[in-house]
Each structure stands twice: as structure tokens, then as C-alpha cells.
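README: folding subset

This subset contains proteins for which both the sequence and a predicted C-alpha cell string are available. Records are stored as plain text. Below is the entry for Aminotransferase (395 residues), shown exactly as it appears on disk.
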Amino acid sequence: MPQLDSRLSGIVNGNVASVAPSGIREFDQEISSIPGIVKLTIGEPDFDVPEHAKQAAIESIKENKSHYSAQKGIIELREAISHYLQKRTDVQYDPDSEVIVTVGATEAIYSALTTLLNPGDKVIVPTPAFALYFPIIKVAGAELITIDTSNDGFVLTPEKLQAALDENGDRVKAIILNYPTNPTGVEYSEAQLKALADIVSQHKMYVLADEIYCELTYGIEHHSIASMLPEQTILINGLSKSHAMTGYRIGYLAAPKAFITNASKMHAFVVTAPSNPAQYAAAEALKNGLDDPIPMRATYEKRRDYIADRLKRMGMQIAFPQGAFYIFAKIPGTINETSVAFATKLAKEAKVGVTPGSAFGPGGEGWIRLSYAAADEDIKLAMDRMNQYLLELAE
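--- output ---
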């Protein structure tokens, strides 16, 4: 097993060396070895990929569609994405010049941010938020500006956005909006998005709209800021959540041509092109499977209602989710522990895995995230164990 030459130990990108690993994944790995633990940590749908999408992948292999695809993705998928987005956002994206198929939404986020940011630029992120945004911004040499939304129902207000822009000036190049939101499940209304769009439109900046959970909303309609501000929006989406295709790693970017022209370079440098079988499966899912998320969504909604009721009966305050498959729950005030300490003890003593809220940035401390993208029996067992643990703490 080779040991690094000691002379090389300092030869590393300083921005990469200074960022911490994902708090979500790191904590999940830390508790995974606990015997008998029930985990509600990772946002991993427990459904199978729709059969017709799987068959499309199989057929592509049989037909020897095994060579490099176009770097932006196969045209069939880009056309399907364009059609889908026109239906959902009423914006017509040219499949040739305004759409890139990426290796998951993760690569879409990376390629978008590293394309638009220069050292010294600033990016606004309402928090708590998906923690992946933070290190990518830092690796790009930019500065993260967080806005704590925990006292505003976990929704960014126009007043706080304007204040952040007034304070940071024209160095702000983008704001990242993820909705429905990971970790809270909170969705933005059309009026809330319009108010934010009105402010952004007055500034020389992008909106990076991460709408990966847009097909998973409960009793409300999802609205995209791209429909209000298409000329300034970089839209990110994918099929991991909507069609349970996490392992297929298919996401996409849609934006004006001038941005996509540059972003396609970064995308090509990083991955060349996505996997062919996964692309054909995704094309089939978008062309003939727009109703596939409906039964999944119904199941998630029932789980949401069950877990929300159980948590409330335990005396826990929650951010009631309108989308995605997470619940953000406040640690009882009688427990004087950090979210990491509480989640660690819950894992070791009650054998229930949740994610500490501190992993999601300012406003997350004192909370925990529970994923209900898990089997019903696991959710029930986790709630029973958690209830017993809290009762014992109260004695």
C-alpha cells in the first residue's frame, strides 16, 4: 500500500482541502454500522424504477447504443426535457442549444456554479439548505452569503433578500433557490416567487433554481421561477426523485443559450457525456411516464401525514412539508444538546438514524431531518423507538 511522499503533502487545491465532507453522508456512514439501526437519513426513494423506463435501458444495450453520445446528451432526451419543461414552466428551451443532460442534478449544480463564478464573487443561499451548495461555491473561489429563514417559516422573504443585496452589492452573481426545499419540504407559492423574481430582475445576477423535487408536492401546484424570469434563470432538475432513478444519475440544466454555451464546456471537461442506457431510460420516462410519480407521491403523502402526527404527539415542533420527502423537526427544548449530539444518542441508544440539522447551515441547529423515503414498517418502528426514547428522557 503506497504512502504519499511527504514532500507532496501540501500540493493540493487549497479550496478543496479546506472544505469538509458532506455532513449528511458523513453522519450517515458514522451510524450505519450500529446493529439493528433504522435509518431515516438519506433521501433515497424506496420505489423501483418504472418498468417501461428499465426496458428502454435494456433495449438500448441490445441495440448496441454503446458509443459516446453527444456531449450535451442524446437528442431524444433533450427533446423530451424541452417538451416537459414547456408543459411545466411554459418556457420553450431549444433542445439543441439550451439544454444539457448531466450526471445527476449534482453535476448540474457543479457545472453551473463553476461556469458562472469567479474568485471574489458572492452567492446567496437561503438556509437551512442542501449542504452540497456550500463546498462547490468555496471550491470555485466564491463567497457564500447565507440568509437564515428559520424565523420566517423557512421561506426567504423579499425584505431579507433585498437587505442582503444592499449589503453585498454587485459582487452577488447568483442566488440558489431549492423548492420544495431540502431539508424542510417547504414549497414557495407563486406569489412568493414573484416577489423574489421582481427583486432579482433589478440586479445583474442569476437565479439557480434547483427544482429536483418539483413532482413531489402535496395538494398544491408547483410553480417555477423560470416562468417568471427565464432570461436570468438556470433551471436544474432530474429524474432521481420523480422516477426513483437515483442510481441512473440523470439530471439536466436548462438556461439561455449564452450560458449553456459555456456550461457545456465545463460539463464536457468533467464527464464528457452521461451513460447511454440511463439516457434512453430517462427519455422514455419523460415521454411516456409523466404520470409515474403519482402513486409514489400518494404514498409519500400518507407517510408524511403519519410521521407528522407521531412527531406532534411526541411534543415536537415541525416544519410541515408541502413537498419533497423530508420533515424538519425541532429538538424538544428540554433537551439541552446540539443536533449532532442528539442525533448521535438517538442512533446509539434508540437505534434510529436521523440527520442533524446543523448539516444544512444556519438555522438548522436545534433541528433534525427525517426522510420518509423509507418503507412504512421502518418508519413505524423508528417512530415507536423515538417515542420511547423521549419518554425515557422525560422520566
